[in-house]
Amino acid sequence: MANLKSKGYVSHLFKGNTIMKTLKITTIIFLVLCTSALVEAKASTDVKSNLEVLDIKMEPIRQGKNVVRLKVQNNSDEDQDLSIDIRTESSTGNWQTQFSHIIKGSETKWIRHAYKINGIIVARTRIRLRFYTAGSTTGAGGEVANQYFKEAKYYVGDLKHAEPDDSKPEPVSKDQRQTIVEALRQFQNCVRNNDYKGAWQFFSQDFKEAESMGKLSTFQKAMETPYFLFPLSRAEVLALEPKSAGRRKGTLALTTALKDERWMVNFIKVADKWCIDSLERIDAAPKKTVPLDPDVQEQAVRRAFGQWQDSIRDGNYEIAWGLYANSLRRSRQHENDFQRFAKEMGSDGSMKRAISLSLRPESVTNIRMGEYAILNTTYASRSFRIDFVMEDGQWKIRNIRMMRSGNGGDWQTRLLPKMRKRITKHFDIFCYKGSTAEKELEKIAEKRERGFREICRFLGKDSDVRIRMILFEDGVTKYSETGHQGAGWAFGNTVVEIYNEKEKLDPYHETTHVLMRPYGSPPALFNEGFAVYMSERLGAHALDAMGGGESSIYERVRQLNGKRELIGLEELLTYTEIGSGKTNPPVAYPEAASFVKFLIETYGKERFLKAYRTLRNSSDKAVQQQNVKALETIYDKSLDELKTEWKRAFLRSG
After folding, report:
1. What was the pLDDT predicted at 9?
2. Angle at 644 (CA atoms; ends 641, 648), nearest 5 degrees
3. All domains of the chain in start order, with CATH
4. Which partner from 281, 529, 594, 618 sits 20 to 30 angstroms from 128, CA to CA?
5. Considering the entire predicted model, what is its pTM?
């Protein structure tokens, strides 16, 4: 291990002609053949503490999970609270968390922690440690200071790297394989049943710290919402299929299949239990050599962008998908769903496709050799930034985002003075001059006002809310001006929609959301379900934009029930939103609306509004359990009884 004692060095990265050397990639490590020095910085202010960090030892650096050991001494007779903040910075993303300890009076102890380096490793990948003494640090003048008393920064180009382990795992017996397969199955069952506390027990301490920052809540968040800091999503965890097993350096390695990928699940024995110690993809691309010449790298970035556009234009969506970085494919935006990506990019009316093909490359900036680059592009007088990272020896897209204008991105301030405005009793309606919306402005105003009145009449209470409605001719313009994707969008008392000859959203859905805000913030089943229900009640084809065509709510749910596609009602009650891909909107919207329709038309609106006010939208399991109990109390029926009556209602309606 490298002995990294405090010496206050200053970095001398890439001196001489070292920048012209090449980077060697292996499946585990990105070795940098250049010279750099350790940077160890002092705290930003002269902060005194009773604690002293005597030594910092790094285990050899590798991609993914790493380990640091710290020797800390308490120079006082009283116990001291120590907080250690560890942060890593790499091209694929930063990682940061804090670990807390109590150091007893006059104690000297070694502390060990695991941490993570995301993505490939290059010389300028940085590790930073900060040390805090909670409530007991003082500045030079004796004042209380909430600042760290020590900071250490390291560039990994200076540190010893782990040697790649290219050896094949030794064979194991059938019983040994069955043991770790069973451990994986038990872990998957805990995740399947939302028993994240139980699943947590199948992790080693190192895995908990490196992949979930030592926090059960972080792991739970990773499972409940796609979260790129964890290697796999919930659906992917459940889809892992055991294959071969072997032994390597004290671990049992289980190779698993995930679609066309291979993932290695490494187990170590903790007490008498086999626990997951690491999870890594093992079918990476072949080794490649990456030249460091800036001009060569700029051209490579431009070629990758051009290849991405050409593959979309030619319908080669697998190539386009392959040019996305792993973190982008597994992000909340894409959820590692290639079929959905291909469908979006393959649709002639797709906003994403239109913008992707219309982006014009300008400059390449912020090139970090073999690690990171930015391609600046333009579309329709707007600037888009595309972040590239080096992955598997290839420049890949990590993020695409529209850059805000100099006024802080206040698009309403910029756009509304140029638009046609129609004022009604409850609405300020804005649209472009010459647009479809302007031609039909009077009809739009009449429908919106009627919807407003009818919703208030149903609620038994008038409202003095004014709604700002902004209508765009198409999705591409809406996105390029606002940065928001999708056909409709409501925030505060503002509603933004697309309106043209082919696409006219139901005129009541978003108005319902605005008027219901004072009534509470219930689970998405009630919030979205009621908006869809009111739209149908007011005569709209409420499911037209949700895959249901002109079907009524009950008709659509009968169809889904016949195909066995309905979501479990217990699960639907836990949804905090409906609209993202993971919520399956074509099923979740009509199902939620049908349950709301059943509650209102069977038990009356007063009970429903009481439930709307009482239930709370939350991903916390305790709150979700309280919601079920509250619902059962309000309706004086168990959830199972309500579910049975609900199914009887929509089946009988046919």
Report:
1. 27
2. 140
3. 2-158 (2.60.40.10), 170-281 (3.10.450), 289-402 (3.10.450.50), 520-654 (no CATH)
4. 281
5. 0.52
